[in-house]
Amino acid sequence: MVGNIPLVIAVNAGAPAGVQFEGVQYQADRYAIGGAVASTNDTIGGVAEGKLYQTERYGSFNYEIPVTNGSYTVKLHMAEIYQEEAGQRLFNVDIENSTIFTELDLYSRAGHDGAFSHVASEIAVNDGKLTIKLNGVVSNATIAGFAVYSANGAIDNTVPERDCKGYIGLTFDDGPTSNTRAFVNRLRDYGLSPVTFFVNGRNIDDPSVIREMMSVGEIQNHGYSHSRMTNLTKSQVLDELRKTNEAIRNAGAPVPTLFRPPYGARNNTVTQAASELNLYTLTWDADSKDWNGASSAQIVRAANALQDGQNILMHENQRNTINANTLSQIAENIKAKGLCLGLINPATGRVTAP
Ligand code: ZN
Q1: Over the stretch 224-272, which tens digit does the pLDDT of each residue have?
Q2: Residue 353 — very low, low, confident or very high, per pLDDT cuts 50/70/90?
Q3: Distance between Cα 260 and ligand 1 center (Å)
Q4: pLDDT digits (tens, 9 = 90+) for 73-93
Q5: For position 162, what pLDDT does the model report?
Q6: Cα–Cα distance between 26 and 17 in angstroms, integer?
Q7: Distance between CA 218 and CA 345 in Å, rounded?
Q8: 199 Cα–ligand 1 center, Å
Q9: How many whole angstroms from 171 Cα to the centroid of ligand 1?
Q10: How far is the CA of 35 from the centre of ligand 1 (A)?
């Protein structure tokens, strides 16, 4: 209850498991469209029990909760678990047609790792779904959880929750490039997230580009200088991998868990060096051949052949891959087959639920 309005549902954003908070059961993350997830082990200030706030969904994304039409109250929970000063993250929050926050700066409201909550009341839903819209203005939007209350509305159980017939992986190598920002926006526009970026350490010069990429996927290791690793000594391979891990970390992304050898070139020396750095050496199940001049239609066809658990090789520096036509068709085909995008499990190399 909030006041005397009964609970409809509560969600622990960015978390694979539920959590109790202030006597309310928050379920594992669901109903999100887009965004990526992250977490912290830091203690959250301002609340007795901070677990709800230690996980987040971030990026520019929506929650769409299937509900009957009625009047709703939404309690939002957020924490700045990443930025360490004011002005580094500003984002907008809308619920249905109401502007809840414009350029919200969590750091200014509650500091780093501080719990922030806000109740939005009397939200009218007329379209069968309660839409919470989070859009980054400076860096990404973030949310830790939300609880929905209503006196006259409920979850609409006649709407089947989107269930995935399988998970496939889109991988984009050789970035970041000068086109990365536009490319990331396109991925977001077509709901193509999460994806996996295999980056070259030497290409990383702007951490904000990496942060953009993280809003639609994960950043993994493709070597520093795109050398054919089978021509290198073990210590040279280690150097390539370490320097790239370091560049990725310095840009604010998590430590990579996957390594894709340039050209797929690998031998025992290469895979041993990778495993010493806890990197799983991954190739691909399907090759888009974009590096060899494949047309947009050929790339779309190659992606359309992917089956549950498989990933496809594509490149960020190939015009036929990153163009709107290719990406929108890939998105449509995935939806039509009831598949979802997933991430690659570093224990098995298979694509699984994100
Ligand atoms: Zn490459």
Answers
A1: 999 999 999 999 999 999 999 999 999 999 999 999 999 999 999 999 9
A2: confident
A3: 8
A4: 999 999 999 999 999 999 999
A5: 62
A6: 9
A7: 12
A8: 8
A9: 11
A10: 26
Kindly indicate the confidence band of residue 160, based on its pLDDT and cuts at 50, 70 and 90.
low
Using an 8 Å Cβ cutoff, are 45 and 118 in contact?
A: no
* 94 and 103 Cβ atoms separated by less than 8 Å: no
Question: What per-residue confidence (pLDDT) applies to 243?
Answer: 98
226 CA to centre of ligand 1 in angstroms: 6
Q: What is the pLDDT of residue 226?
A: 98
Q: What is the dihedral of CA 297, 299, 302, 303, to 10 degrees?
A: -110
Q: In this structure, what token pair is assigned to residue 308?
A: 């549950």
Helix axes 207-214, 180-189, angle to 10 degrees: 10
User: Cα–Cα distance between 40 and 224 in angstroms, integer?
Assistant: 28
Residue 96 token pair: 């249905």
- Residue corresponding to tokens 């290409």: 203
**Longest distance between any two alpha carbons in the chain, whole Å:** 70
Please report, to the nearest 10 degrees, the dihedral formed by the alpha carbons of residues 237, 242, 245, 250 taken in order. -140
Q: Residue 302 in contact with residue 287, Cβ under 8 Å? A: yes
Report the C-alpha dihedral over residues 203, 207, 208, 213, rounded to 10 degrees.
60
pLDDT band at 165 (very low <50, low <70, confident <90, very high): confident
CA distance 89 to 103: 8
Burial call 121-156: b when 16+ CB within 10 Å, e when fewer = eebebeeebbbbbbebeebbbbbbbbbbbbeebebe
Write down the residue that tokens 């249905």 correspond to.
96
Q: Residue 163 pLDDT > 80, yes or no?
A: no
CA distance linking residue 242 with residue 261, whole number of Å: 14
Task: Sort 286 into a burial class: Cβ within 10 Å, 0-12 / 13-18 / 19+.
Answer: buried
